[in-house]
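Bench log. Compound arrived from synthesis this morning; before running ITC I wanted a structural hypothesis for how pyridoxal-5'-phosphate sits in the protein. Inputs:
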Amino acid sequence: MKNFGYTTKILYKKNNKIEYGSLHKPIYTSVTFRYKKTKELINVFKNKKEGFRYSRQKNPTVSFLEDKISIMENGIETICFSTGMAAIAAIYQGLLNINDHIISSKFLFGNTTNLWNNIKSKGCKISMVDSTNYKNILKNINNKTKIVFVETISNPITQISDLKKIGKICKKYNILYIIDNTITSPYLFNPKKVNANLIINSLTKSIGGHGDSLGGSLTDTGLYNWKNFSNIDKKFKKYNENLWGIKQIRAKSLRDFGASLSAESAHNILIGLETITFRQNKACFNAFSLANMLKNNKNIKKVYYPGLKNHPQNKIAKKLFKNYGNLLSFEFKKNINYYKYLDNLKIPNLATNLGDNRTLILPIAKTIYNEISKKKKKNMGISESLIRVSLGIEDTHDILNDFYNAFNKL
Ligand SMILES: *Cc1c(COP(=O)(O)O)cnc(C)c1O
């Protein structure tokens, strides 16, 4: 299996030991699972025997998806959650105590920023830094620092942290390195390559790909020595030490907070992920083509896309990622009526979300950054006319023609 290509790995039947030779794992809607013998039931509850007991904690369809994500991320174990945000919140619920310190990139998905503000008020300390310069990580480490958290390509301005250097720093200081891989997806980038210890994915985005199910995942790459993490409870130390962290998160977050993925959503995501390589190749090609078209247009002030030579981290992206991603943003020159431009477009959908088969377009400042002050937006590089595009898999010439023609109607 090691030498197989990415799609073959995902589809390979050895991973698919499914009842009756079925090619798809059935959707197990059962909440509970019965046993014939009392002893057996007790052994399942004591984790002495493999088995299912209650679907909040473990369900056969969801477990099947967890194993697939582990294959996609080359990890040792994955936990799925009802949303990507639940997977990120699990870090706090499962691993952190009062006064613990996190160093986080300040270029983050908006709701993750909200979550960090939320947990600050519950007693954790957070340093938000410009992680495109690794020195800002180094400068902020103290003896309470438990976690470094970064994204691969940040949304909407597409900054990329020095992922490899940060991995080396975390290893040296035994700090848990967590990467949110959502914008790249496991097909374009495997964070284990840069020594990430936990990998977050919003399954809602490019993995599911069809915009029909919410989901999230957290994968342990097996690279962290959990003996160095002081917040592991004694009861989780009965497992192999590789698994202390993930077992504790499964109990303290998934079991206790209960943001479990449904079997129906797990099924949709399992079908979606089978075609990730095709969808991503096409969507990245569309993004690359559109970025190159827009950068030469007289109405456009700036295009943000890691595949452009003038992108500050173009070299890092080229070295680390299989492709430059399906997300780009651009700014109009002053005096352009961008409402009119957006209304002129026929193919893109005016909608939030990312990584869908359909191209989605969103004016950022007045939608998802609507509650943030003008000054703060300026600080973050979010101008009034910043437009985010998540490219879909539509035919490239149709997309390019549509974006081009909409200029002519201004
Ligand atoms: C969408 C997104 C999330 C949250 O995922 P949901 O499934 O919407 O909860 C987290 N991180 C990134 C980078 C995202 O784009």
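What the model suggests: The first strand starts at residue 77 and ends at 81. The radius of gyration is 22 Å.
ITC booked for Thursday regardless.
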